[in-house]
Amino acid sequence: MDLESVYEIDLVAGFISGKGFRRVALQFPDELLKDSTRIVSALHEKLRLFNQLHTGSNGDAKDVRLYVMADTTYGNCCVDEVGASHVNTDCVIHYGHTCFSPTSTLPAFFVLGKASLNVPLCAQKLCEYTIKAGKPILVLYGLEYAHAITEIKASVGTQSCFKVEFCYADTMSPVITPSETFCSMNGQPKLSDGQCANSCTTEENNAPYRIGGLTWSLPVGHRIEDYLLFYVGSDDSAFANISMTYNTCEIVRYDATEDLLVNDFSQQKRILKRRYFLIEKAKDASIIGILVGTLGVAGYLHMIHQMKDLITRAGKKAYTFVMGRPNPAKLANFPECDVFIYVSCAQTALLDSKEFLAPVITPFEAMIAFGRCRRRCRRWSFCFSEHHREGSACS
Q1: Burial letters for 81-119: b for 16+ Cβ neighbours within 10 Å, e otherwise?
Q2: What is the distance between the alpha carbons of residues 80 and 291, in angstroms, rounded to a whole number?
Q3: All domains of the chain, ordered by start, with CATH?
Q4: Which of 255, 273, 256 is nearest to 264 (CA)?
């Protein structure tokens, strides 16, 4: 695929031109930075043509300023609003893998990319496995494979698995604006009053699911536990988020790089057991450090205040730290903290804390450890919005 197709040059230029933005930040992960100069040149040319088409001028007087951003302070998957604010930009164009976390102050446009996929083989593997499973299938995928889902649907329709019920997730709109509610952006249904369903809510309201940029609805009376989850993509943070959130579901993953099915998820089960172990350790803590893992995801300040309140009401002390990406050396400077709570986006929330001197847990796990949720939930939760109300982790 050519550069203009992979990086959606027409769509991005149309978004910038249509909104009248004049200062635009282009955020790249390290692996895509090599293409940044060609993308900037292509965007400048396309914007000039758009301006010439709409105004009749050559566009020189109203050139859009494009700023390339890389080496983000926190995760590459989040929009770097802090970096963009340094040059006073109007919006951010985010390239590459993303968690689709809602922004706080700036509108964002997500360019997901188009990874190569052997569609006929993927459809064949999907049909072969679904016939064995004997369950309805929910097809999820990494966002970089969204461009191929229509072809997969068509290919599956020509094969001998037509009697199996299929449900395909859709991708959310590539545009996020700060005015939009950040409820239901990652994981569970959105209730009719605009609040997010918590991790233990049933699906009786037939509300759509949303997680990591994917959204889908199930037929009335169906539960997600009734489905086999067929995931197309890599074993990355997006897949970890899905497998942890829906850990009671049977999951199989099609590895598009190796062209094979993976259904051994013993590692995910070990991770889940370890998370429960860390929760039990956290219950004995007396001094808790709150690690700020994002300065841009909508709701992060509310979550920090909510954690402070939770810790105080549990009769413990809380300290807040802003240090960029945590590592064992940084946290070793605070040996008085018995446990740390990492407030970050859904896809960077799980830190392997084996090398840390103290456990590092998520806000959801803190709610279980410090009193809001006394029993084990069927699903893990990583989204701020799901903890917005008192006791939202479980009821």
Answers
A1: bebbeeeebbbbbbbbbbbbbbbbebbbbbbbbbbebeb
A2: 18
A3: 3-111 (3.40.50.11840), 119-173+181-264 (3.40.50.11850), 272-387 (3.40.50.11860)
A4: 255
Angle formed by the axes of helices 266-283 and 237-245, nearest 10°: 70
Q: Which residues neighbour 89 within 8 Å (Cβ) at sequence distance 6 or greater?
A: 23, 24, 25, 67, 106
**137 touches 159 (CB < 8 A):** no
Each residue's pLDDT tens digit, 239-298: 999 998 998 899 999 999 999 999 877 778 888 899 999 999 999 999 999 999 988 888
In 3-state terms, what secondary structure has residue 269?
Answer: helix
Q: Is 76 left (phi over 0), alpha (psi -120 to 50) or beta?
A: alpha
Strands (DSSP E) found in 153-308? 166-168, 170-171, 175-176, 209-211, 214-216, 228-232, 250-255, 260-262, 287-292
Using DSSP bridges, classify how beta strands 250-255 and 260-262 pair: parallel, antiparallel or unpaired: antiparallel
Half-sphere exposure of 260 (CA within 13 A, CB side): 5
- Which residue carries 């429960």 as its tokens? 276
Q: Phi and psi at residue 300, in whole multiples of 5°?
A: -65, -35
CA nearest neighbour of 364 among 98, 210, 193, 186: 186
Share of the chain above pLDDT 90, in %: 61
The whole-angstrom separation of Cα 188 and Cα 346 is 13
Q: In this structure, are residues 140 and 214 in contact, taking their beta carbons and an 8 Å threshold?
A: yes
Token look-up 């889940």 returns 272
pLDDT (0 to 100) of residue 59: 52
3-class secondary structure, 170? strand
Structure tokens given for 189:
């249904």
In order of 168, 291, 346, 350, 351, the CA distances from 274 in angstroms are 32, 20, 18, 11, 11
Residue pair 26/44 in contact (Cβ under 8 Å)? The answer is no
CA dist 174 and 239 (Å) reads 20
Distance CA 9, CA 310 (A): 46
| pLDDT digits 0-9 by tens, 16-30 | 999 999 999 999 999
Contact between 304 and 276 (Cβ < 8 Å): no
Structure tokens, 169: 């997730």
